Predict the structure.
Amino acid sequence: MLRSPGALAGLWLIGLLVLAVSSALVTTIGPSGLTSGDVLQSALARVTGGDSGLSRIQEGIIWNLRLPRTVMAALAGAGLALCGVILQSLLRNPLADPYILGISSGASTGAVLIVVLGIGAGAVGLTTGAFVGSLVAFGFVLLLAFASGGTTDRVVLAGVAATQLFSAMTSFVVYIAADAEQTRGVLFWLLGSLASVRWSDVVVCAVVVLAGLVVCLLHTSELDAFTFGQDAAASLGVNVARIRLVLMVVTALVTAVIVSTCGAIGFVGLVLPHAARALVGNRHRVLVPTAALMGAVFLVWIDAASRTVISPQELPVGVATALIGVPAFVVLLLRRGRTR
């Protein structure tokens, strides 16, 4: 476990370098024959205004297809890992992840209502419908949780109820109204996909994720207090109700934006916080940025694997994260069991 400031600074610097190199390398993966040199040459030409020597098709592949997808993968991985850290600390539940609040299932319902039933079609797009659905689900969880007492276990139970409710609604709509093509499209989106990401999506996600990261970093001392329980946090002068509401709203917004853009990508927010804790400990001032950085690198490479492992077909990125996340989580559980 790393504790000294020098070691932590070195870790973060290495992580940023790995993320930058990974993004450049991942952008070259595919059937177009691009190299990392081509990517760097194109980026340099964009900055200086010169000629990259690449064809317009190759430029389009880099800047309109692969680079926005890679940047979005990094943002989504960072955001989901960040939300996992916050929720596991607030709820004092090691199994908490960004989807425990019913946000993913609510987004799925909103997306299905747009795709299958055409509700708001033309005025409301798929991403907007998913975002609205996720916020409706989160509002339902908050209402149910606070009406039943507002304790952390009530929040978890309310999230389970919302997940089941909106999942049932999604399945019902697909079952009674979707044709085969719509069902396939909805299923691929529900399993997670970065294939249709645009720069406008990247900008929105970047603003929300970075803002969420700043807010969480400003509350790391309160999060440290929450690890000892709500009563202990209150005795240390923490406004428990306000801090919990603010951080839960932040995690809900970050998760809603990610899910509405990329679909449901599981296990990132569950596994990466545990891996980060094993590396740097439980101090949130260190844990929060470390988990975000690890999540970004992790999802960049998972997305690269998902679009090449069964080429020319593409494996949904949510399936890939589950296939890797489950064994990794088992290993973490076994290691924690041996240390106790």
